[in-house]
Structures are given as C-alpha cells and as structure tokens.
C-alpha cells in the first residue's frame, strides 16, 4: 500500500489530511473602512497580493472596473446637472415669452376695443350726416 495515501480501511477521524497550501481567509473590511469598499480593498491589497496572485489580478481588474464605472457615473451626473440647469433656463425663457405674449395679447384686445369704438363713432357720424342731409 502507498504510504502517501490514506488507508480506506481506517476511520475518517484518524486520517490526517494535509491543509491546503495558500489557504486564504476571507477579506473583511476593517471597522473604520466598512462603509467604503474601495478603501477596504486597498487596505487588504498587500495581503491579497502575497497570498493569491490570481485573486490579486481579479481584484485589480475589479478595482479598474469600479474606477471606470465611477468615472462614467460622475460624467452622467454632471450631464444631468447641466441638463437641469438648461431646463431651468428654458423654463424661465418660456415664462418670459409667455408673459410677453400675454402682454401683447392684452395690447391687441385694447387696440381691437379702440377700433370698435372708433368704428361705432364713425357709423354714428355717418348716420348723423345722412340725417342732416335729408
């Protein structure tokens, strides 16, 4: 029987299985960085780099993706704020235009009223003239 292999006839309790090399404990953020995942990852990055190179590469890739996503999100927020300001300007301009339109409409009604008044006066004068001529 091969001495490096455990015996199949022995009990499981008596067998000793060598511990996995490079076993890694889970990475938990420290209490002072628990609300900031990126800071927690940065704080533990040295330990991760030493213990598991493939995980280190994964974490670097993840960190790069987070950085890109934060940049994109920041750009979206800036564009949104810019559009909000533009909308506010357009709303003020629309209100100003509406006020000017209402003002001009009011002036038009005044002019129409004045024209109707003058038309009535002209008709009255025309009637008086006809009455005087007859």
Can you describe this structure?
With 134 residues, this protein is mostly helical. The chain has a domain at 31-94. The protein contains two helices and no strands. Helix 1 (37-51) packs antiparallel against helix 2. The longest helix has 81 residues, at 53-133. Residues 73-128 form a coiled coil. Residues 1-52 are annotated as: Disordered. Residues 1-14 have a biased composition (Low complexity). Residues 19-37 have a biased composition (Polar residues). This is Golgin subfamily A conserved domain-containing protein.
Structure summarized in a few sentences:
Residues 1-14 have a biased composition (Low complexity). Helices cover 72% and strands 0% of the residues. The chain contains 2 helices and no strands.
């Amino acid at each position: 029987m091969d001495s490096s292999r455990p015996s199949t006839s022995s009990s499981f309790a008596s067998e000793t299985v060598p511990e996995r090399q490079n076993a890694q404990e889970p990475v938990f953020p420290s209490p002072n960085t628990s609300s900031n995942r990126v800071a927690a990852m940065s704080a533990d990055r040295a330990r991760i780099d030493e213990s598991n190179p493939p995980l280190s590469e994964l974490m670097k890739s993840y960190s790069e993706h987070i950085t890109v996503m934060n940049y994109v999100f920041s750009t979206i927020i800036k564009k949104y704020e810019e559009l909000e300001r533009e909308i506010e300007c357009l709303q003020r301009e629309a209100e100003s235009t509406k006020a000017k339109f209402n003002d001009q409409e009011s002036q038009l009604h005044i002019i129409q009223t004045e024209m109707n008044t003058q038309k009535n006066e002209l008709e009255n004068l025309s009637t008086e003239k006809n009455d005087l001529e007859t």
